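Retry 2 of 3 after timeout on previous attempt. Resubmitting structure tokens to design endpoint.
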């Protein structure tokens, strides 16, 4: 991207008042910047679910992993991100600009054989982890503890399930079941290894890391039913959000997480900016 193209994209991000649209626009710009250098970024975790459902739980950062080869090293990440005027770094992993943060993580961890979903934005396409993986990961994250359920993750899973069951998002249930079975087997093996390493004692906690202008074509496969234009994504937002609010609270942002100090410094003690959904003016959002 040229300096003028980057400036135009950042202007669009800056002028956008809706948090979800703003985040998706920035994700498109960052994805395009890396893709033109031969890297394939993929949005994962709660960030992906937020874009899928328009549920109000996104923090101030968007998680990006990588698929395929090559993957950017620290020097390449820094060089590419420094192309964005005014950007600031927190530890080399987190990058802040226009009131939002991008977290550049490692290789994407996914099990589905389905194509990554494709969201088109005015300044670059965004790839999301397959719905099957997103749903299984969030259900497992919510219910992996024997003695309790993580309500925030559970609510995220419910909102994604509502979008799927209503037909707003395509899913292959056989594939989702296969991914779930695969994930359970992997975690059981991890628990056995952990138990052996501890001499047969308690396993402890097992942390799961499930983790265009002149636009650069993605090398990743895609399918028409898992592709949304910017206009299509915007048009379906209100209904996806309405359906999600039928099964889970409107705002379910996690109260805290490890290493979120830089978010709280940015957002006056909160983990993200106030929610603002134009089609839901009653949402007083904190």
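Retry 2 succeeded. Sequence:
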């Amino acid at each position: 991207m040229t300096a003028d193209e980057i400036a135009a994209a950042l202007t669009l991000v800056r002028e956008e008042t809706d948090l979800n649209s703003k985040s998706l626009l920035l994700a498109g710009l960052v994805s395009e910047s890396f893709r033109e250098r031969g890297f394939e970024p993929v949005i994962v975790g709660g960030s992906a679910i937020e874009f899928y459902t328009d549920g109000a739980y996104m923090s101030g950062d968007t998680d990006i992993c990588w698929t395929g080869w090559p993957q950017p090293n620290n020097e390449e990440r820094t060089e590419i991100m420094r192309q964005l005027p005014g950007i600031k770094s927190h530890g080399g992993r987190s990058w802040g600009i226009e009131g939002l943060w991008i977290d550049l993580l490692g290789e994407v961890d996914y099990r589905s054989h389905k194509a990554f979903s494709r969201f088109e934005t005015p300044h670059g396409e965004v790839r999301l982890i397959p719905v099957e993986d997103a749903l299984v990961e969030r259900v497992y994250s919510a219910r992996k503890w024997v003695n309790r359920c993580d309500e925030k993750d559970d609510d995220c899973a419910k909102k994604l399930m509502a979008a799927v069951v209503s037909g707003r998002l395509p899913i292959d249930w056989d594939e989702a079941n296969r991914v779930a079975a695969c994930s359970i087997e992997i975690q059981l093996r991890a628990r056995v290894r952990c138990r052996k390493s501890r001499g047969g004692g308690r396993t402890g906690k097992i942390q799961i890391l499930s983790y265009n202008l002149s636009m650069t074509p993605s090398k990743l496969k895609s399918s028409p039913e898992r592709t949304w234009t910017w206009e299509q994504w915007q048009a379906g937002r209100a209904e996806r959000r309405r359906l999600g609010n039928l099964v889970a609270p409107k705002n379910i942002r996690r109260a805290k997480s490890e290493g979120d100090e830089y978010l709280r410094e940015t957002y006056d003690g909160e983990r993200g900016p106030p929610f603002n959904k134009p089609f839901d003016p009653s949402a007083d959002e904190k």
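Attempt log closed. The first strand starts at residue 41 and ends at 43.
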